[in-house]
Amino acid sequence: MQRAILRKTSFAAAFVALGTAAYAQSDDGTPHFKMPVQPSLNLYGSPGVIDMPTGEALPDAQFAVSYSYFGGISRTAMTFQFSPRISATFRYVGIQNWNDNGFDTYRDRNFDVRFLLRRESQYLPAITLGLQDFAGTGINAAEYVVATKTFDRPLSLPGSMKVSAGLGWGRLASSGSIGSLFGSNRPKFDPNSKGGNFATDQWFRGPTAPFAGIEWQIDNRWALKAEYSSDAYEPETSRGVFTRKSRMNFGAEYQYSENLRLGAYWMYGSEFGISAQLQVNPKRATTPMMVSGPRTIQQRPTRAENPAAWSEDWSTSATAPTTIRDALRPELEKEGLTLESLSVSANSAELRFINRRYSADAAAIGRAARVMALILPPSVETFRLVLVEDNLPLSTVTLRRSDLEALEFQPDNTDALLAVTGFSEAAPNLPHAVKNPDLYPSLNFSVGPYVSPSYFDPESPVRADAGVSAEFRYRFAPGWLVAGEMRHRLIGNIADSDRFSNSGLPRVRTDSLRYAQAADTTLHKLYISKQWKPGANTYARVTAGYLEQMFGGVSAELLWKPVNSRLALGVEANYVKQREYEQRFGFQDYSVATGHVSAYYEFGRGYMGQLDVGRYLAGDVGATATLTREFANGWRVGGFFTLTDVSAAEFGEGSFDKGIILQIPVSWFTGQPSKRTVSTTIRPIQRDGGARLDVPGRLYEQVRNGHRNDIVADFGRTWE
Length: 720
Known about the structure:
The structure is a single chain. With 720 residues, the chain is mainly beta. It has 11 helices and 31 strands. Helices cover 13% and strands 42% of the residues. Strand 25 (567-579) and strand 26 form a beta hairpin. Helix 3 crosses helix 4 (361-375). The longest helix has 20 residues, at 2-21. Mean pLDDT is 90; it is low at 1-17 and 19-31.
């Protein structure tokens, strides 16, 4: 229940701790850690010297957040190394004293992508090709090819030195051009552009200019930098934002901790600049996992040693299943697991249970198997373990007890156990099972703070409301849920904005300001849902009520997802009405039938794709493509874009809907096992085109973690 509140209040605070998470001190009070292995970032938030890029790539999966400022120009950037060779950056730029067409501070959103063409070797440099601001207004649009070579102890000096040189186009060829290598027809920056389109007609067009830079990493803390810039800053200098007197930049950077790096610079012969770079890697937790070690597998006596213990006479007793259930329940609860139902015979047992603690279901399966080995009579050889998620039996994992006993202390126990483990469909129901009588009814209630942020208002880039949230979840029967949330705003400035919607489409999202201004106390959501498993490989859900802040109605979903398949298919249909601005029980006149057909595919190594095709809230028809990368510990980073039959002109600023998805597991910070996460979706601009209904409890995310691919990915944790 507290997951939603935690998600809304903890995301920003989580990153504050990262800057000092790896900080350590020696006896004399100075920080100590190894020489930084990750490339430093430039003022654009990408691997670079100062203002120019370098040919390096961040370590695989590295996530970086940076802020820089000089000459009235601020840049806040997020960069993610999506694969070993591909990285992406989202950047928010503010340019003060713009004084053009009513702009005092001009604000812009940029997307970059970089491709590592070759890695650095003993004799040859790393080479990277980059597209900068390739789908924005074009103020920072540039393309480049750059090479970087590292030299250890250059000229017998301490530390290491990186030398970079490259060719730039667009913004990175506005100074020192050597001609146009691939044609001179390049559109100029238009400050009135709505942005959002892929400007393929300008890539690698127009003048070309060289740039270069040197970074000397003196020791594990200090670095000195110098570069020759090919950026003339024409849009800024022509408007008097700052005066550019030189092509040279100089800087010094201090590695405060393994995560946090600070920098100070002398820019273009006239301006002082600063930067802060925060880099973390989802593969490495900030806090080691602190979890009690699992109990050892209870070894059975051999049949020859104790033939009486192997007797199957116990199975003829009518009370045996209940007795075993009552013995299993408290032992499972110690492991953070809840017994849902149990079926047991002389030689086999099926345990259906709920995992409330572990982010990896493989860990829950291993703990449950140990409890079964502790409690069940020796004659029970086959364990069938079924994970259950809100009345949805997900998959059957079949283990032989003798395999657990024999392999526990073997050096290759994970691979050996996986080779003899079965994964199969879980039946919708378990006949003749004894159930947990205390599961229903159940009521969970929580009260806590909430923070609701709003981003990218040109007058105030970050706004937020904060207050108290009260939530409840009531389960009165298997699969049934009644849930709701009330909010009372205590402080905030979202309602202070005066930028009301100018959308020509039905205002299904752009009237968010009116919702913020209407009332301090709101019914954020209130709904009833039922979910069940109608047959093999299928899952179903029906939800009705006030589904989200702006819409209420009825939603139905059917998902097909075989246990051993990478592919899943789903269909969702909704009929909703727009809620009154006060977010109580009333509705406005606008109603719409909306829904999607969805395909989900697991590519392997944590990469996942999703394609949703259908009708959106404004009545437009199109598709949303999503690509994410997920890690075993629960981190998820990705992006999406939506294209519909709404034209770029009708859509307005941004041209089409797009955004970034970021999810971080709480256990990554705390070191304690938990299924809770903090998450956010960052949209450069929220418009009415491509807007999808926010339905609580969609099926795919509930189902996939308990299927074969996700369990196998973390199978080593069955022994934890």
